[in-house]
């Protein structure tokens, strides 16, 4: 259905995540084919949009040409494949082949994915392959070759901002369905993108105003509520609640072994460095999401901390933080003549070019040439002429 709207071209979209855990729609791309060259061009366009700043981490599906393009164009970016892109493949690859054994295989596969130790993963993976007779299976070979991009024990050392969660995946799907579900032409698609983006901004404001209820009597919770966004506070709050079911045992070297009272999961090693209040847990939750885990929180509680050290409130999850900086002449000012003029020109161009394929091809060809000419001229101009601008919009951390 999507290809019928996009003149049989491939549709791709770029998403991020804001400090309320909501997807941010950065933009989309229409590609004539799925070649390495096309994917590389799309990534180059994204980098230009981001003013040359490459993402720290990028998530994608298993497409080999897209993976190669990411490796080529974003060599310093960690490439992660979400487990939610892998699980449907696992079902289609192995359910018929293994038959009645598939349920046992799937249970072991899920357990392997969640292991904290890479050494444990390597050992149990080999055991699983042997037990189910999958040593020569090409799909098992593929998954193993890509293990550093999807297995938790390998990827949790990289910052994912909870983009690999089920909730985030569902939010992205809902956004895309909202765009395509009611459209029958490319023109309607572009109009719907604008509507969806505006609704997304309104949703952001609604979430920011949500009241955050206390669920414990811990001073750490009260202090965190004053700093974190509702999304981040809720995540930390859940970890605080669960931490009460854990016990921390101090070791001779000052580290701690933290375990659930029913031993429903393995022990976690928490390293505490009192000199500068550093805490590190073997589960790597903070490194991955920027939210302290139940194990680290258990140690802070046992040490009678009433407030968490400031370093454990990342700017990404603070109430006052934002992925974009706006000056006093904000984009939210609907009377901003500069913004309205360019928005109107863009909408008109999209509307006229999406009526026929001939128009679309012509606009794409001529616009590329004209933009190249304009950019070359603009880049030759001084970067500062002393005149104040009415509108500024620049990326920030």
TrEMBL record:
The family this protein is said to belong to: Belongs to the FHY3/FAR1 family.
Domain SWIM-type intervals: 269-304
Transmembrane segment boundaries: none
Species name: Gossypium mustelinum
InterPro entries reported in the protein's UniProt record: FHY3/FAR1 (IPR031052), MULE_transposase_dom (IPR018289), Znf_PMZ (IPR006564), Znf_SWIM (IPR007527)
Protein's UniProt keywords contain DNA-binding: no
UniProt GO molecular function: zinc ion binding
Protein name (database record): Protein FAR1-RELATED SEQUENCE
PROSITE patterns in alphabetical order: ZF_SWIM
The organism's taxonomic lineage, starting at the top: Eukaryota, Viridiplantae, Streptophyta, Embryophyta, Tracheophyta
Main location: nucleus
UniProt keyword Nucleus present: yes
């Amino acid at each position: 259905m999507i290809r019928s709207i996009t003149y049989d071209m491939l549709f791709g979209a770029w998403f991020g995540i804001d400090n309320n855990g909501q997807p941010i729609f950065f933009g989309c791309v229409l590609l004539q084919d799925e070649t390495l060259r096309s994917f590389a061009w799309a990534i180059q366009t994204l980098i230009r949009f981001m003013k040359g700043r490459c993402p720290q981490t990028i998530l994608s599906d298993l497409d080999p040409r897209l993976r190669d393009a990411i490796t080529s164009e974003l060599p310093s970016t960690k490439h992660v494949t979400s487990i939610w892109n892998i699980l449907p493949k696992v079902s289609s690859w192995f359910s018929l082949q293994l038959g009645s054994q598939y349920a046992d295989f799937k249970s072991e596969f899920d357990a392997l994915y969640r292991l904290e130790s890479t050494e444990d993963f390597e050992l149990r993976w080999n055991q699983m392959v042997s037990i189910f007779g999958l040593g020569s299976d090409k799909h098992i070979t593929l998954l193993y070759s890509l293990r550093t991009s999807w297995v938790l024990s390998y990827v949790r050392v990289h910052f994912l901002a909870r983009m690999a969660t089920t909730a985030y995946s569902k939010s992205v799907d809902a956004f895309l369905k909202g765009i395509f579900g009611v459209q029958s032409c490319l023109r309607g698609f572009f109009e719907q993108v604008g509507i969806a983006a505006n609704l997304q901004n309104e949703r952001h404001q609604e979430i920011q105003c949500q009241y955050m209820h206390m669920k414990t009597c811990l001073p750490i919770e009260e202090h965190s509520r004053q700093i974190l966004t509702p999304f981040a506070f809720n995540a930390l709050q859940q970890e605080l609640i669960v931490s009460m079911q854990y016990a921390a045992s101090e070791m001779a070297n000052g580290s701690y072994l933290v375990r659930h009272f029913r031993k429903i999961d393995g022990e976690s090693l928490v390293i505490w460095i009192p000199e500068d209040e550093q805490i590190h847990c073997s589960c790597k939750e903070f490194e991955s999401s920027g939210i302290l885990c139940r194990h680290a929180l258990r140690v802070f509680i046992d040490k009678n901390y009433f407030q968490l050290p400031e370093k454990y409130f990342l700017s990404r999850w603070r109430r006052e933080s934002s992925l974009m900086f706006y000056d006093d002449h904000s984009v939210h000012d609907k009377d901003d003549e500069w913004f309205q003029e360019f928005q109107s020109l863009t909408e008109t161009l999209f509307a006229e070019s999406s009526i026929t394929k001939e128009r679309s091809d012509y606009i794409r060809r001529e616009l590329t040439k004209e933009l190249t000419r304009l950019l070359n001229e603009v880049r030759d101009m001084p970067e500062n002429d002393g005149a104040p601008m009415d509108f500024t919009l620049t990326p920030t951390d």
